[in-house]
Structure formats: C-alpha cells, structure tokens
Amino acid sequence: MRTYDPDNAILDALRGSGIELNVAITNQYIECLANDANSANDWVRNHVINYPDVNLKYISVGNKVSPADSATSRFTRFVLPAMRNVYKAICRAGRAGQVKVTTTVSMSTLGNSFPPSDGAFHDDVAPYLRPILSFIVSTGAPFMANVYPYFSYIYNKDQIDIGYALLEQGHGIHVNGEYYDNLFCAMVDAVYAAVERLVERSLKTTGGMYNHTSEKKAGRKGRPRGPKIVVTETGHPSGSGDSANMYNAKTYNDNLIDIVDDGTPRHPEPIETYIFALFNENEKPGAETERNFGLFYPNGQPKYDLNFN
Fold it and tell me: Is the pTM here over 0.85, yes or no?
C-alpha cells in the first residue's frame, strides 16, 4: 500500500495488519527536512518509531521532483539532503535494515525510452539524479518510478497499438533481439537502462566498484545492475478521456496482475508494483481523466471485479 502523506488515522488502522506500507513525504515538506536534521528526527519519531507494529517498507522523499518540471524544479536541491537526514534518523532508530529511503520520478524524466535498451534520462535531469542514485545504491534502497502505458499510448496513438498498451497477448513487438509483449515491460526496462547507464557513468567518473550480478539478471553484459526498480504508480482511467472506459481499465489492471510476476525481458524477476489508485479522486484538480483512476468510487463501491490472486 502507498500513501502520499503520512496520516495518523491510516497508520493506526494498519497496526498489526502486516500490510507493507510505502509512505511519501510531500514535496512541500522536503526543504524543512533538508535544512533541519531535528525535523527529520521528529518526522521519523512520529511516523516510524511510534508505529513499531506497522510494516513500513519505504519512505519516498518527494514525488516526481524534476529540474525539467516547472512545478517541482524548485525542490530539486532539497531532495538528496532530505533523504540523507531521514536515512540518518532511520539508522538512529535502528530500522535501516527494514525501512529504505528513496524518491520517485515520472517517465517524463527520460529523454529516450525506445528502444528500451537505449533508455536514458534527459541531459538536464541526469546531473540531479546521479548523486541520488549513488546514495540509493550505497544504502540498498530501490529506485521508484511512475509508469503509465495509458499516457504513452494517448500521446503516440499513431505508433502504439491499443492492445499493446492494455498488455494484451498477441500485440507484442521484437526490439533489438528482445520480445516485448506489452508496453508496461518495455517502459520498465527503459527505466532500468536509464538508471544503469547513469550508475555506470558515475562509477567511471569516481573509479568506484560495484558488484555485478549474473549476465542474465544484469541484462546487457558488463553493465552494472544498479538498484531495483519499484513501480510506484500505474493504472488506467475508467472514464472521461480518450480510450478511458471501464472495459479498458479492468483489462489493463487484470493483465498487469498477470504479468508482473514474470518480470521483463532484461530483468526477469517480479516487478514490485502499486496500482493507482484505490479510490477515484473526485476533488482532484486538472483533467477529468485524472479523477477516474480509482478501483473504487469515493463512497467505497467497487467499479469492477479485480482478482489479485
């Protein structure tokens, strides 16, 4: 389960449940945590130490912060210092082995995503992410990304088949010796390639060392694996937009559940994935489509049956 702001009512409800929790720290609070270690200590005490019976797995410092995004660029210089302060507080609490500190990006940070093996971050994003990735690698945390085949399809309908975007069988493509039967896996591998490329360049610059895994798991021979990718958001709208309807939403999420255990062509291991969202956000500003990603209506009524087994 992922929550975008630590809510005490949610934390209380999760006590003793065993449900793994991914908590985000809002962009607006990052500067405070970056500039004041005591604030980071207080945050960890209030949301981690005081909830020993909540299975907190990840703390994501910020959401979709990017120097290429005018709405979030002002937060970029605070993300890594905030991550470090929160991590130090987690270490002092004796929870570094259980709770990993990371951050989340969107696919818009990639300057190239096709073919997947050539995935790379934008030139103006790479300098921001390079030290963050070094920190993530050093602490054993994953790197997090929001992956939406729906939006890739909408903006590239002349190039992408709807069945490929809905993860349906029989719409796959061959790319550089790999077979991708769905767009989700292609996008995840593009993120992996971008991350691995940046990690590799960092090691060449610093002369650092990194343990390689097997060639099968590392993907391209001789390339460092880098951190695991966790997909923190993916889903499909059920209304109020191009190709947004109940059938497509259910089809996408059903197929997603079926494929994530198999991994991708370059990384054939389960993909830890969070479906967005649990509820429709009927008061969310912006496009009407954005309010229709939920599995449930705001009143708690399910939109359609979804089997997670």
Answer: yes
3-state secondary structure of 153: helix
Return the bridge partners of 145, or none: 105, 231
User: Would residue 233 show up in a list of annotated catalytic residues for this protein?
Assistant: yes
Domain residue spans of the chain: 112-119+147-225+232-309
Q: Which stretches does DSSP call E strand in 157-296? A: 173-175, 178-180, 229-234, 273-275
Work out the mean pLDDT of the chain and round it to a whole number.
93
The residue from 216, 269, 284, 288 that is catalytic is 284
pLDDT in tens, 146-199: 999 999 999 999 999 999 999 999 999 999 999 999 999 999 999 999 999 999
Annotation says 20 is catalytic: no
Pick the catalytic residue: 57, 100, 196, 233? 233
Looking at the domain covering 112-119+147-225+232-309, what would its CATH class be?
Answer: alpha beta
Residue 281 annotated as catalytic: yes
Q: Which of 288, 287, 286, 305 is nearest to 296 (CA)?
A: 305
- In angstroms, the CA 166 to CA 306 distance is 15
To the query of whether residue 215 is one of the catalytic residues in this protein, the response is: no
